[in-house]
Amino acid sequence: MKICIVGAGITGLSAGYKLSKLGHEISIFESNSFSGGQASTIKFKNFEIEKAYHHLFVTDKAILDLYKDLGISNELKWYKSSVATYADGNIWKTTSPFDLLTLKLIPLTERIKIVIISLRLKLLKNWKNIEDVTAYSWLSKKVNNTTFEIIFKPLLKGKFGKYYNKIPMPWFWSKVQTRVSSRNSKLQEVLCYPKKSFSSLIKNLESQIRGNGGEIFFNHKVTKIITNLNEVKSVNVIDNNSIERNIKFDIVISTAPYEVLNKIINLNSSLKKSMKKVDYMSAIVMILVLKNQLTDYYWLSIADNKFPFLGLIEHTNLIPKKYYDNKNILYITNYVENDNKLMSLNYDELLDLYSPYIQKINKDFSKNWIINYRFNKIGFAQPIFPTNYSSYKIPLSLPIKGLYSGNTAQIYPEDRGTNYSVDLAEKITNLI
């Protein structure tokens, strides 16, 4: 069959690879000049790294199997993670359950409650039992107000902004499932990352698709999906020279956000209503190449709502610096509403805003530490779901023959990520 795939992110590439391998005629149209989506890489002088921080968990079976299928599993390396939380003017180690039990920031009885909450959620198999309640409501009733204000509220507010008290509890459940399952026999969290970056995966997928007779068109935008008698017939595509043409296809797979999908095809009112249940937040990601190490931790969560960013991910505290010219790589991450004033700031303005707070983490930090940088603003980075979202989530196979959708708003209750993008592609391939 002739299959059109809208978008060359990880879902689009994975679907293109799997379907072209089965003998289908694949055409992928990507509006950008690059593939990989949020897992795409940025080149520095002697290395490249993802635009937004990435790693894999032990439970990320779909993408680990994809690496194996492509014959590049030898690129994957496992590392012991290190996690901490900044709160009350100090950095507190929170890497293991033992760290939580010795966390003097909160009373011992409350520390025990947090461990019990983690165990209870780990043992809970049916997340639909907690789908009708928000994480804010559920967690605030399990611990005292001080613990909630220090531990859980900053996590929710930093990640979800103004939506912090609306996030369904299954999101938090899925985070516990993933992180607890990624611990080794010594209860240490272990994470996976390719030798250098995810660019090898992306390039391998592109190569395999082309080797199987498929095509990938960059700077090409699908403007309309044309149907007849409730069946896909063709798509209109415009290239970077503003030349539009109509191409016949048997199947169309959209990996675009709902807002984009809704513009290129007229779906029924029930689907539109479900799609509008989902809001999105944007990501602001600053990558700093530093002379010096900022902290001792890979992942530092900020539990202080006065801070203008969500967390610090010090990539080279997980991955050896030898891959990055022996420099220190730091991600400063933020999720913000699309109308947030931070979205209008440039790199220098944002760095001026961030710097005093980075110095709270390490008093010796100065802008002189910065050797190089990259700065990204990523739209549709984090979908926001309502409670009971499973009853609203649209199916992968839409009620138009030959039309499929696979995007981050269909990853639920898990948090979106590369593994689940590959999983979406596998599910759509099986449906086709």
Explain how this protein is built.
The chain has 432 residues and is of the alpha/beta class. It is built from 12 helices and 19 strands. The strands form 5 sheets. Strands 7-6-15-16-17-14-18 form a 7-stranded mixed sheet, with helices on one face. A 5-stranded parallel sheet has the order 9-2-1-13-19, with helices on one face. Strands 10-11-12 form a 3-stranded antiparallel sheet, with no helix packed on it. Helix 1 (10-21) runs parallel beside helix 8 (199-211), helix 1 packs parallel to helix 12 (418-431) and helix 2 packs across helix 12. The chain is globular. The model has no long low-confidence stretch (mean pLDDT 94).
Instruction: Tell me the helix content.
Output: 25-40%
Biggest sheet: strands side by side, in what order? 7-6-15-16-17-14-18
The helix/strand class is alpha/beta
Mean pLDDT across every amino acid position? 94
**Main sheet: strands, sense, barrel:** 7 strands, mixed
Tell me the strand percentage band.
Answer: 25-35%
DSSP summary: helix tally: 12
Number of strands: 19
Tell me the radius of gyration: 22 Å
Broad shape: globular
Distance between the termini: 10 Å
Work out the oligomeric state of the chains in this entry. single chain
Weakly predicted, low-confidence segments: none
